[in-house]
Specification:
The protein has 364 residues and is α/β, with parallel strands linked by helices. The chain has 14 helices and 13 strands.
C-alpha cells in the first residue's frame, strides 16, 4: 500500500506521541510505502526514517489553505489512502481517507473555547466523519461521543487504544534518579504532573489539593511539559499560598529524562476534566508508579481497576488519595503491581497492527 500520513503535529504532546509511534512502527512493514506530509520546521527528534519520504507543506495549521494544499499533494502522489491523525481531513481527496479523532473537546467543554474555534471544530469534525472511509478513535468513550453528536454509521468507527513506549517498563538506575534530583533541586518525595496547562487539564484542583497536603506532609509537586511560569493565574496561586519552594517547574524534558521523572516520583496525578486517552496514567503505571486520575471522559477506561479515580471537582478527595498512597505502603505496592499489569495490555505494536488492518480494509 502507498499511504500518505499527515505528520505536521509530530512535535505536539498527545497527538505527537501518537504520530511518532505509528511512524516508528511502520518502519518495519515491508509492504507499506509511506509519504509523510510534514511542516517546514519538521524535526525528526531521533527518528531513523529508513522507509518512506518526507514532503513538506508550509500551510498554516487550522487553515483553509492546508485543506487544499495537502489534498493537491496527496492527489499528485497517487496514494492508495490518506491518513489524517487529527480531525483536519483535506477536501476533495481522490483516494479513501482515514481520520483519527482523539476527542471532541471543543464541542463538549464549550466554555473553554471561543465561538470561532468551536465552529471550526464542529465543521471540520463533521466533514471528517462524513468524507472519510473510516474513523479511528482511542477509546469507547471517544466512539460514544461521536455517535452522540454526529450521525455516523457506527460500523465506520474503529476503536484502537493507544500504546505505551516499552522503555517505560525498563527500570532506571538509582544513580540516574540521584542525578535527576540534584539537577532540578528536588529534595523530597514528589507528586508528578506532566503535560499541558490548558484550562480543561484542571491543574488548579491539583494545586489546591497540594496546598492541603503540604500542611501535614513534607512533599514537592513537580511539573513537566508546558511551563507553569508562563501561566499567570497558576503563578499567582502558588505565590499567594507560599508554595513557590515546594513547586518545581521543569518545562519540557526529553523522553529519557521523562522516564526518570516518572520512576523517581511517588505518585502521578492527572486531574483533567477531559482526555481523549490519558497518556500520563499509562506511562505512570508502566513506570511502576501509582496513578491517580480524574473520574472523567476516557481516563477510567485507561486506568481500569489498576489506579485511583477521584471527582475532578473535589480537591479534598484528591488530597486524601495522595496521602493514602504516600503513607500506606501495602496500598501503594498493590497499585504499582496492578498498574504494571494493566499497562502491559497497551502496546504501540498492537495499535499499529490494528491501524494497518483498517488501512487494508479501505485501501483502493
Amino acid at each position: 500500500m502507498r499511504i500518505g500520513i499527515d505528520i505536521r503535529k509530530y512535535q505536539d504532546y498527545g497527538i505527537g506521541t501518537y504520530i511518532q509511534n505509528l511512524v516508528n512502527a511502520f518502519q518495519s512493514q515491508p509492504d507499506l510505502d509511506c509519504i509523510y506530509y510534514a511542516s517546514d520546521d519538521f524535526r525528526s527528534d531521533g527518528l531513523d526514517l529508513q522507509k518512506g519520504k518526507i514532503v513538506t507543506d508550509s500551510s498554516p495549521k487550522y487553515s483553509l489553505q492546508e485543506l487544499i494544499s495537502l489534498s493537491k499533494k496527496a492527489n499528485s502522489d497517487f496514494l492508495d489512502l490518506y491518513h489524517a491523525p487529527h480531525y483536519t481531513l483535506p477536501v476533495n481527496l481522490k483516494m479513501p481517507g482515514i481520520v483519527t479523532i482523539h476527542d471532541i473537546i471543543h464541542l463538549r467543554l464549550k466554555k473553554y473555547f471561543s465561538f470561532p474555534k468551536r465552529s471550526y471544530a464542529y465543521f471540520m469534525v463533521r466533514h471528517a466523519c462524513s468524507a472519510s472511509s473510516a474513523i479511528i478513535v482511542d477509546s469507547e468513550h471517544g466512539k460514544n461521543e461521536l455517535l452522540d453528536v454526529f450521525r455516523i454509521d457506527q460500523k465506520k468507527i474503529h476503536v484502537i487504544p493507544l500504546g505505551v513506549d516499552q522503555s517505560y517498563f525498563t527500570k532506571v538506575t538509582e544513580e540516574d534518579k540521584i542525578t535527576f534530583r540534584q539537577k532540578h533541586s528536588i529534595t523530597k518525595p514528589y507528586i508528578l504532573y506532566t503535560g499541558s496547562l490548558k484550562p480543561h487539564k484542571n491543574v488548579p484542583v491539583l494545586l489546591r489539593a497540594f496546598k492541603e497536603i503540604v500542611r501535614e506532609h513534607d512533599i514537592q509537586l513537580v511539573f513537566t511539559g508546558e511551563r507553569v511560569q508562563d501561566n499567570p493565574s497558576l503563578i499567582k496561586f502558588i505565590g499567594e499560598n507560599r508554595l513557590t519552594e515546594a513547586v518545581k517547574d521543569l518545562g519540557r524534558i526529553d523522553r529519557a529524562q521523562l522516564r526518570i521523572a516518572y520512576q523517581t516520583a511517588s505518585v502521578v496525578v492527572l486531574p483533567s476534566f477531559y482526555e481523549g486517552f490519558g497518556f500520563s496514567m499509562l506511562e505512570a503505571m508502566a513506570s511502576g508508579v501509582p496513578a491517580i486520575g480524574a473520574r472523567a471522559a476516557s481516563i477510567p477506561e485507561v486506568v481500569g481497576d489498576a489506579g485511583v479515580l477521584f471527582d475532578p471537582n473535589d480537591e479534598h478527595e484528591l488530597a486524601q488519595h495522595v496521602v493514602r498512597v504516600l503513607t500506606d505502603k501495602d496500598y501503594s505496592s498493590n497499585l504499582i503491581k496492578n498498574g504494571n499489569e494493566r499497562a502491559q495490555q497497551f502496546s504501540w505494536s498492537r495499535c499499529a497492527e490494528k491501524t494497518l488492518q483498517v488501512y487494508a480494509k479501505v485501501a483502493r
